[in-house]
């Protein structure tokens, strides 16, 4: 009888391929349940030219975040507030689904959600050097080296790990005469983080006549994922810090929040173990 | 104390009378110089006073972009550039400077109505304008230079487009306004006419001018255009003679 | 393909032949504007939605405190046009069309270069802090003559705009919230009004305020920006049918008369919106 | 105006500029470079008035090549599409060379099959130079070429020189063969479009041109991509002839078979690389020996 | 204690009656303006119409969404709005009925650029789609809630109220399946607060859907409704 090898089958009938896994409750990458996660691996401080950096792997997804601190003038409206400017880049090299050139809608919306979460996680007033004159601005560039799903989860994880790894000069002196800031050459002071947000992404899939959650879908599994929800939970307090999602039944949304809270604690420990 | 645009003796800051054009100098075919290699089909270099302008014309040629093809006439594209060293202060050029885009668009639509575009379906004519030195009146200098370059390229036109500017300073209409005068808040009209019909095809004013003075100024600019036509025509004929010999 | 539709030859001749008989397709006289409605303050100070016939433009003025360019005592006035694809299928998002460049340049020239706004009055501390006034122009519906409509919207919004009051004591600059102190209007020297003419029949026929249909048929345009002091602020004609000088002079006179009418309508709208506020 | 224009009048050039009335006489017909403004015939280009019977046209001094049927041209393949090549020959549009208008290897009288369409790029691919003849024009004014003679086809063993097309006059001889010294031959193809191909000459001048009863080998060799072996002496000769043609163009003189030879002789005392820089001197010397 | 909100409302869970205008634009196939207080959005719909070749989908209509802010140029926030709205529309438009076509919607904020604008944009878009006669599976409606600094839940906040909020929630509900069609929450909040937010939002959305109905009925206008019998 005519038989297809698994790779060809996946290529020709992606939906059917994944549906058969789904029917058995297992995942093509070897995970044994719909609700199991790929365990993230975090390395920090590997880029020495930055004030802080982190490399995160979630399965085959690899993302690197580097943080550079620069001095800027605060806005007239909030004279003591520093800035964190994050940017997510999914370059063409990380997956065949992204094109070179200007970032697309997906990349930009991830950028925006990451930015909105980090704004409430960092103590911005702690970045002030001299009110109305000088504050720190932390430029966080998050670059995906390989992409296999979990964009939001991995990007936020890399950013938070890098922020924990960030060190600023211990002494800064603002000179009112020429408006410059002199900083000591040591990098020893960590920045204050109020929260440790962890994002968990779920897909909504149809299986056995009903809809259910699929934790941490890979890029391939997008073929059967109808819509997605990302839940951000503070690993320190267990508070929620954002949900971003599409079409989902109410009970699944509630379930995702419960699951995300559990997972945030586990991931928080992994990040907490890094320096 | 602001100095007068026209002195009581009737002279302007560069020694001209109010109705006098600046010195005009031109060279047709600069880039190709009669021999092959430079790729341009026509070229003209024009000096009006200290404003210097080089125009190259390419085409009609196969359109560089498929999407630009028009089935019933040629497409005209114009690029307008001002060299960063052209004026006193060095200015780095913005790639999408709206002023330059506007200039290009004005010149494009002016010449579109004069060139016999329908003789060249599915082809493209490109005009590249470079202001090398800027001393006021870049628009009219560019228009005159473009007319010469198009003729040099042998592209059929219904008529010349000749352009000239005129302004109004302390009670006097003045012809062919230079940069210093532009800086003295003189309102300037740039006027382009097709001399055969004597009709206005290009008109541009950028600063405030009272309606009561308008007719005087525009009439002066028109006279300037007529003078300009004689100058350009002489230039075309003498360069043709040189070539025919 | 999306984008603008072409017109048939018979549609073109229909429009031109009607004009030869002195009739416009929508029944207007040659020098007659379409109905003009100016709605001010729909979204607070400095917003104006102008409806010229069915052409709709929204202008919004906002202000922020910025640092001026080196030691200057002048504030900024910035224009931003957005030709939303909402207005016409011919407008594509993210592409700067020639039409958009021309409209935004004309507005800048009409309002900024003609010094309609007192930019020195926007200075708070010389070389340190100035107001930057931003005019965002949104074209929402394109039924012809965007430019005149946008110009009316921009100038109405600027006239309607109020910025927060500011006090300077030594180094200390205080910006007072609007509910604390009465906000301040901009100081505006004159009201430039843009009048567009369309020419037909090799320049023999002329109309003001061309509709979208007329714009597609016309042999060229002529734009005059003039204020009630009979000062020409900006004029522009590029290509199209050639015009006699006499015809041009005649157009400027018509424009001055039209501008006076439009200015009256803007003033009326302003008075009305002030009354509602009280 | 008298229809019987004398020789002397012919010699007098009537130069006009755009917008200038050529004639107000209504008996004349409008030709290239003119338009009707009411009763008057008006010039659209700066150039010389030409009259053939009642047809008045103005020929611009310089203009893009526009071509006529029968013109020999040299061009470069710019694109290979289904059933046709597009050829850049410096005209306002690329010309088309239909698959049906070339000789195919394997005999002339063969049906063109789909496999030929697929193999077009093996015959002529982008960048290849060809010589061809203008066969006709399409509706939109672009030219259609043919190479159905063994004198046309792919060009090899030489280099391209481009000159203004107005300097090449229509004549009987566009395939020129020079024997510069015994055993040293240079061939020149003078394209009407101003593209000139200068190449190593065939030993026997008679072999060029239309060869009756072409053999199959000849047809196969038509599309070969290999240059013949060329000696250094021959290379210098090709370079010298090329530079001579550029020098003629620089001085705006007509490029003809005889004049190239004269200029070549006049150039011999000057280093090959300095020919263009000293064009005036060489051309004047060549004219003297005319 | 009588509660007084900055715009005069007396109840934290009070929804301002939204103002709607149907088909204000002449060129678009459908258009609508939707406003909560001073936050207003104008939406226009073109389609289903001829699609650009590179966007053509074999089995469904291509849905494009473009959001423009009132002030300034669009940035990443606008992209997020576009993505959110597009995902809602993809689940709601009967796009498989119109293969190889495109449905384009354009939203322009009329006023105010707070998160409230996203709710307005979603609602305006749905109204514009109805105005254009594009087939929809269901009506979705969106509301915004905040948890203010005293941990009170406030429905349909004004721009000032949003500024001081601890967290902001934009919920969109479907009127047929009662599912959440979209949720965007930012800020820091507890699970209990979150649960109360979606209960409140769900019932508020139902009243917005009633407004849709009223708006559409007004369009039908003149024709006497059936309640006479």
Keywords:
heteropentamer, B: 245 residues, alpha+beta, Ribosomal Protein S5, domain 2, five-stranded mixed sheet, four-stranded antiparallel sheet, 4 helices, 10 strands, 28% helix, globular, D: 290 residues, OB fold (Dihydrolipoamide Acetyltransferase, E2P), 3 domains, five-stranded mixed barrel, four-stranded mixed sheet, 7 helices, disordered N terminus, ExoRNase_PH_dom2_sf (chain B), ExoRNase_PH_dom1 (chain B)
Walk me through the structure.
The complex is a heteropentamer of chains A (275), B (245), C (278), D (290) and E (229). Chain A is α+β, with helices and mostly antiparallel strands. Chain A has helices at 6-12, 14-23, 105-121, 151-165, 250-273, and strands spanning 41-44, 52-58, 61-72, 83-89, 128-130, 134-146, 167-168, 172-175, 180-183, 189-190, 197-207, 210-215, 227-234, 240-245. In chain A, α1 packs across α2 (14-23) and α3 (105-121) packs across α4. The model of chain D is unreliable at 1-11 and 205-214 (pLDDT under 50). The radius of gyration of chain D is 22 Å and the shape is flat. Chain D has helices at 7-11, 114-118, 120-123, 216-221, 232-250, 257-267, 279-288, and strands at residues 15-16, 21-23, 29-30, 34-37, 40-43, 47-52, 55-60, 72-81, 84-88, 95-98, 129-137, 143-146, 153-154, 158-162, 175-181, 184-190, 195-200. Chain D has 290 residues and is α+β, with helices and mostly antiparallel strands. The two termini of chain D are 37 Å apart. Chain D contains 7 helices and 17 strands. In chain D, the strands form 4 sheets. Chain D has a 5-stranded mixed β-barrel. A 4-stranded mixed sheet of chain D has the order 1-6-7-3, with no helix packed on it. Chain E is built from 4 helices and 9 strands. Chain E has helices at 76-92, 116-132, 159-163, 191-220, and strands spanning 19-22, 30-36, 39-50, 62-68, 101-109, 140-147, 153-155, 167-174, 180-189. Chain E has a 5-stranded mixed sheet with strand order 1-2-3-5-4. A 4-stranded antiparallel sheet of chain E has the order 7-6-8-9, sandwiched between helices. Chain E is globular, with a radius of gyration of 18 Å. Chain E starts with 18 loop residues before the first strand and ends in a 9-residue tail after the last helix. In chain E, 55% of the residues are buried. Residues 222-229 of chain E have low confidence and may be disordered. The interface between B and D is large, with 39 and 40 residues. β10 (209-210) of chain B pairs antiparallel with β14 of chain C, so a sheet runs across the interface.
């Amino acid at each position: 009888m005519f038989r297809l090898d698994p790779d060809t089958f996946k290529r020709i009938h992606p939906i059917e391929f994944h549906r058969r896994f789904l029917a058995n409750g297992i995942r093509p990458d070897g995970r044994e349940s719909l609700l199991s996660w790929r365990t993230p691996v975090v390395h920090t401080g590997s880029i020495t030219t930055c004030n802080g950096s982190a490399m995160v792997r979630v399965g085959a997804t690899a993302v690197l975040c580097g943080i550079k601190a620069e001095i800027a003038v605060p806005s007239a409206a909030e004279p003591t507030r520093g800035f964190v400017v994050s940017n997510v880049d999914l370059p063409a090299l990380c997956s065949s689904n992204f094109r070179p050139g200007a970032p697309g809608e997906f990349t930009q919306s991830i950028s925006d959600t990451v930015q909105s979460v980090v704004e409430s996680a960092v103590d911005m007033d702690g970045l002030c050097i001299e009110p109305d004159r000088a504050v720190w601005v932390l430029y966080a560039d998050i670059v995906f080296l390989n992409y296999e799903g979990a964009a939001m989860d991995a990007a936020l994880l890399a950013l938070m790990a890098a922020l924990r790894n960030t060190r600023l000069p211990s002494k800064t002196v603002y000179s009112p005469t020429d408006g410059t800031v002199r900083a000591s050459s040591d990098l020893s002071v960590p920045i204050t983080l109020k929260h440790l947000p962890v994002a968990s992404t779920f897909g909504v899939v149809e299986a056995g006549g009903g809809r259910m959650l699929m934790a941490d879908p890979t890029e391939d599994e997008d073929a059967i994922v109808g819509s997605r929800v990302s839940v951000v939970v503070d690993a320190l307090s267990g508070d929620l810090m954002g949900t971003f999602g599409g079409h989902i039944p109410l009970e699944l949304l509630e379930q995702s929040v419960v699951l995300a809270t559990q997972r945030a604690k586990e991931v928080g420990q992994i990040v907490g173990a890094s320096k | 104390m602001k100095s007068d645009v026209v002195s009581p003796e009737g002279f302007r800051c560069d020694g001209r009378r109010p109705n006098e054009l600046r010195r005009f100098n031109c060279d047709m075919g600069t880039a190709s110089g009669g021999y092959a290699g430079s790729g341009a089909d026509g070229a003209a270099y024009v000096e009006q006073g200290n404003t210097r302008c080089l125009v190259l014309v390419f085409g009609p040629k196969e359109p560089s972009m498929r999407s630009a093809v028009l089935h019933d006439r040629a497409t005209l594209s114009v690029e307008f550039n001002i060299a960063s060293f052209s004026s006193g202060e060095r200015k780095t050029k913005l790639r999408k400077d709206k002023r330059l885009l506007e200039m290009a668009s004005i010149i494009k639509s002016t010449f579109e109505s004069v060139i016999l575009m329908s003789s060249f379906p599915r082809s493209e004519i490109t005009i590249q304008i470079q202001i090398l030195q800027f001393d006021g009146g870049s628009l009219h200098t560019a228009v005159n230079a473009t007319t010469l370059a198009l003729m040099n390229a042998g592209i059929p036109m219904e008529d010349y487009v000749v352009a000239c500017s005129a302004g109004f300073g302390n009670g006097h209409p003045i012809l062919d306004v230079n940069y210093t005068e532009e800086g003295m808040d003189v309102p300037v009209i740039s006027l382009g006419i097709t001399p055969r019909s004597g009709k206005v095809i290009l008109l541009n004013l950028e600063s405030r001018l009272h309606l009561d003075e308008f007719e005087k100024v525009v009439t002066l600019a028109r006279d300037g255009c007529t003078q300009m036509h004689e100058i350009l025509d002489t230039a075309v004929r003498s360069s043709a003679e040189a070539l025919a010999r | 393909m999306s984008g603008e539709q072409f017109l048939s030859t018979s549609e073109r001749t229909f429009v031109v032949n009607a004009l030869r008989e002195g009739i416009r397709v929508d029944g207007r006289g040659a020098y007659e504007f379409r109905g003009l409605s100016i709605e001010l303050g729909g979204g607070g100070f400095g917003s104006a939605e102008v409806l010229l016939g069915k052409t709709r433009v929204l202008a919004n003025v906002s202000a922020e405190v910025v640092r001026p360019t080196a030691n200057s005592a002048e504030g900024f006035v910035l224009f931003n046009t957005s030709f939303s694809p909402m207005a016409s299928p011919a407008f594509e998002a993210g592409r700067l069309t020639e039409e958009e460049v021309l409209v935004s340049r004309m507005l800048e020239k009409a309002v900024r270069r003609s010094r309609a706004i007192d930019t020195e009055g926007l200075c708070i501390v010389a070389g340190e802090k100035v107001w930057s006034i931003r005019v965002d122009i949104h074209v929402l519906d394109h039924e012809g003559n965007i430019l005149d409509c946008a110009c009316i919207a921009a100038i109405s919004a600027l006239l309607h705009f109020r910025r927060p009051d500011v006090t300077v004591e030594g180094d200390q600059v205080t910006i007072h919230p609007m509910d604390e102190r009465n906000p301040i209007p901009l100081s505006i020297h004159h009201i430039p009004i843009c009048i567009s003419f369309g020419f037909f029949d090799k320049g023999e026929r002329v109309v003001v305020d061309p509709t979208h249909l007329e714009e597609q048929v016309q042999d060229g345009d002529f734009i005059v920006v003039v204020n009630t002091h009979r000062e020409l602020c900006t004029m522009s004609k590029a290509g199209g049918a050639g015009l006699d000088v006499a015809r041009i002079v005649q157009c400027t006179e018509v424009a001055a008369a039209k501008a006076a009418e439009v200015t009256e309508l803007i003033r009326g709208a302003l008075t009305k919106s002030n009354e509602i506020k009280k | 105006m008298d229809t019987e224009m004398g020789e002397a009048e012919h010699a007098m050039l009537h130069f006009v500029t755009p917008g200038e009335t050529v004639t107000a006489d209504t008996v004349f017909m409008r030709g290239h470079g003119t338009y009707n403004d009411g009763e008057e015939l008006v010039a659209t280009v700066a150039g010389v008035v030409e009259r053939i019977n009642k047809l008045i046209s103005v020929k611009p001094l310089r203009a893009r090549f526009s071509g006529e049927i029968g013109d020999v041209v040299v061009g470069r393949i710019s694109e290979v599409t289904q059933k046709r090549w597009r050829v850049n020959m410096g005209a306002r549009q690329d010309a088309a060379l239909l698959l049906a208008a070339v000789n195919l290897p394997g005999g002339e009288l063969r049906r063109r099959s789909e496999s030929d369409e697929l193999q077009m790029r093996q015959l002529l691919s982008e960048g290849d130079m060809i010589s061809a003849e203008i066969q006709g024009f399409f509706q939109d004014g672009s030219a259609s070429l043919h190479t159905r003679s063994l004198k046309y086809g792919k060009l090899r063993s030489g280099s391209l020189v481009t000159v203004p097309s107005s300097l090449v006059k229509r004549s009987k001889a566009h395939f020129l063969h020079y024997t510069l010294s015994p055993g040293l031959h240079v061939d020149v193809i003078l394209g009407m479009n101003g593209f000139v191909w200068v190449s190593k000459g065939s030993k026997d001048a008679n072999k060029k041109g239309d060869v009756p009863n072409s053999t199959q080998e000849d047809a196969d060799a038509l599309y070969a991509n290999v240059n013949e072996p060329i000696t250094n002496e021959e290379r210098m000769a090709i370079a010298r002839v090329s530079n001579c043609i550029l020098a003629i163009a620089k001085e705006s003189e007509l490029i003809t078979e005889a004049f190239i030879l004269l200029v070549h002789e006049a150039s011999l005392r000057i280093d090959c690389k300095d020919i263009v820089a000293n064009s005036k001197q060489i051309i004047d010397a060549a004219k003297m020996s005319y | 204690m009588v509660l007084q909100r900055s715009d005069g409302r007396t109840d934290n869970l009070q929804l301002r009656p939204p103002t709607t205008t149907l088909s204000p634009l002449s060129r678009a196939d459908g258009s609508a303006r939707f406003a909560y207080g001073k936050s207003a959005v104008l939406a226009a719909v073109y389609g289903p119409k001829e699609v650009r070749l590179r966007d053509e989908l074999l089995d469904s209509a291509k849905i494009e969404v473009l959001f423009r802010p009132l002030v300034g140029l669009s940035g990443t926030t606008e992209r997020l709005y576009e993505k959110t709205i597009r995902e809602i529309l993809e689940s709601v438009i009967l796009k498989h009925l119109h293969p190889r076509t495109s449905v384009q919607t354009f939203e322009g904020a009329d006023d105010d650029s707070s998160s409230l604008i996203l709710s307005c944009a979603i609602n305006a878009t749905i109204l514009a789609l109805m105005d254009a006669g594009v087939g929809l599976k269901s009506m979705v409606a969106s509301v915004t809630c905040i948890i203010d600094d005293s941990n009170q839940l406030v429905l349909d906040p004004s721009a000032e109220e949003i500024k001081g909020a601890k967290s902001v929630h934009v919920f969109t509900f479907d009127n047929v399946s009662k599912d959440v069609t979209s949720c965007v929450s930012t800020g820091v909040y507890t699970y209990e607060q979150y649960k109360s937010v979606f209960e409140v939002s769900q019932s508020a959305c139902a009243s917005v859907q009633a407004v849709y109905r009223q708006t559409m009925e007004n369009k039908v206008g003149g024709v006497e409704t059936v309640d006479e019998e």
